[in-house]
Specification:
mainly alpha; Helicase, Ruva Protein, domain 3; Arc Repressor Mutant, subunit A; 3 domains
Length: 203
């Protein structure tokens, strides 16, 4: 830009921001020529608080990553811990989640991930906490449903609900019966009692 000579290059630019560039251009806070050069194929990623179903997957991803780096044999994440992480609004988005899991990996002394839950300090304008009348069972039920939907109702396997919840499959089967969780009617052959034999849930 600004040169009298043409220089041919073959590049791809990927730019990321958490600001509203269109508004900043209108407010004369960002160069409009640069904005239109960058704004070729915009991809908007919702904040983590708007997609809580991704939180268990991200927690397991970061836990596996840090466990491998630190050579720690972490095998399980408590259900109550995962429920608390899912309910938290994450004002710092994925980076805050990554840092917390990294800190938890440093603090963990055994095979269970010990997340310092008191460190979660929601901002004043964060999403409100669940109503006081909500029971622990109701919160647990909603959390398990979110994980089941995110895993496409797959129970076993590395990306199945039992792995995301940090629970043995037998324990998860028991919780589904206890909490009265059944798959939506689109699959008439599914029920908690037949999950062991059903496909793909038994995989």
């Amino acid at each position: 830009m600004g040169s009298s000579r043409t220089m041919r290059v073959d590049t791809r630019v990927v730019a990321a921001t958490n600001g509203d560039l269109a508004r900043m251009v209108a407010d004369k806070q960002f160069r409009n020529d640069l904005y239109y050069r960058l704004n070729v194929f915009p991809i908007t990623v919702p904040p983590l608080c708007e997609r809580p179903e991704d939180i268990p997957l991200l927690v397991h991803f970061f836990a596996h990553k840090f466990a491998k780096q630190m050579k720690k044999p972490i095998e399980r994440i408590p259900t109550q811990t995962m429920a608390a992480l899912t309910a938290y609004p994450w004002p710092g988005n994925i980076r805050e989640l990554q840092n917390l899991v990294g800190r938890a990996m440093i603090l963990s002394r055994g095979r269970i991930l010990e997340v310092p839950l008191p460190a979660l300090q929601p901002a004043a304008d964060a999403a409100p906490a669940p109503p006081a009348a909500a029971t622990l069972a109701a919160i647990e039920r909603e959390h398990i449903l979110r994980v089941l939907r995110a895993s496409n109702w797959m129970i076993g396997g590395a990306t199945g609900a039992s792995a995301c919840l940090g629970l043995p499959r037998t324990t998860l089967h028991h919780k589904l019966r206890k909490l009265g969780i059944t798959r939506p009617p689109r699959d008439d052959h599914w029920s908690p009692d037949r999950m062991r034999s059903a496909s793909p849930l038994a995989s």
